[in-house]
Amino acid sequence: MKLPAFSYASPTSLEEAVALLATGDGEAMPIAGGQSLMPVLAFRLASPSLLVDLRRIPDLDRIRIAEDGLHLGALVRWRDIEDDSRLASEFPLLAAAIEHVAHYQIRNRGTVGGSLAHADPAAEMPGIAVACDARISVVGSSGSRTIDAVDFFLGPLTTVLAPDELIVDVHLPPWPSDRRWGFQEFSRRRGDFAMAGVALFYDEQAGCAANAHIGIIGTNDRPQRLSAAEAVLNGRVVDGETIGLVAASASDDVEMHGDMHASAAYRRALVGTLVERALGHAAAIDPAERE
Ligand code: FAD
Known about the structure:
By secondary structure, the chain is of the alpha+beta class.
């Protein structure tokens, strides 16, 4: 379908962009990579009167590793993350997850801020943000605020953002170099959105798991943390028995929906399998050893 008619603005500062959105009276929308918004317009799921292109705003495309962790500007593209070799070694869970986003052409344009604002429940970046306790900084006409990722997503394609608020930065806390982690997802074809996906990590204290974080995508209306499964993992030696217990708890604990792609029962079983594989990767246990 042809796109609806809209005006177009290409501001060169955040202030100008926010002012344009504020005067749009809810009828203006930001556009970054356009990889989700263009299909939304083509399907007439939105008909904004004005598109505010963010790409000429300086400094929003920066990747910064600082003492307080990792800062990703809203305009950082999937390709920028892939191409930054520091991230593969210093934030390996993020780098591993982004490999699963869509196809090369989409990764060349799609952005971190666009993905978080679009809030697809099966998207990798929202899942990483929730799993890693990320904080999302936004700017609007009434000032700036920082929102915990876990409070940011309200449901499919719905967030706490006001119409005149822009995501500017996503902050992930520091990542210890000896942290154990795993990312697994399943989709019908490579590059498709995940039917289910798991991002997890834990630290080790006296040979046992501590500070366990387990995030899930694709199973419900927004990314989730599995606190019951995290509690099972914390304090245990990560061996085959623990992996089985955590996977069973994750499968029981997860909030689940079924759709045209897979039933709720199938997805529940899938989550157990993905958690088992991700934890096996984290603990560097060969699957054959767990038999
Ligand atoms: P846009 O399309 O420009 O915008 C998306 C939404 O975010 C719009 O509502 C826009 O108004 C808003 N927005 C954009 N930037 C900001 C900002 N800074 N502040 C506030 N609001 C903002 N994604 C995945 O995660 N995994 C996949 O497997 C995957 N597969 C895909 C397959 C296909 C065929 C396609 C077309 C897309 C796929 N995507 C997937 C989506 C892709 O990653 C998008 O690039 C991403 O979701 C949106 O980023 P964008 O920069 O293109 O945002």
